Amino acid sequence: MKLIVGVADMKISAQRDDVLVTHALGSCLGVVAHDPHAGVGGMLHVMLPQSSINPDKAKTTPCMFVDTGLPAFFHGLYGAGAAKGRLKVKVAGGASINCDGIDRFAIGKRNCVMLKKLLWQNGVLITAEDTGGNFARTMYLDVGTGRAWLSTGGQEKEL
Length: 159
Hints:
By secondary structure, this protein is an alpha+beta fold. Helix content is 22%, strand content 35%. It has a single domain (2-57, 87-158), classed as CATH 3.30.1330.200. It has 3 helices and 10 strands; from the N terminus they run βββββααβαββββ. Strands 1-3-8-9-10 form a 5-stranded mixed sheet, with no helix packed on it. A 5-stranded mixed sheet has the order 2-5-4-6-7, with helices on one face. The chain starts with a strand and ends with a strand.
């Protein structure tokens, strides 16, 4: 079954026939993680780096922010049977999408920095990434196989 991961959302599955997908990763980040031994996979779509700009929103929608969404995502994966040492983590997005060519807030870059900082602090390595640029991506994860891929402008790319 195809499961859509919305903006500021996450999905975790142990169903081998599920495919997780998130659309329009511009400055947002898509994070997929898959434990091949447990057959558990998940996808997270975060918008902003730090929850300190709106702590109330972070309580109700933790996946909006990297610093609150990432821990919730990993706790969900562990609760479904995944083990930290077996997870394959892949990341996409973090682009600079703007109309005038000037990225004043650098949200995409700041999202990437926060994500990598938190993963590094917790001993989790990224196995593949496609970040930056100035284009949006659609990201997919096949839970059964762990295959992750991107679609951009009608072209598919393995991640």
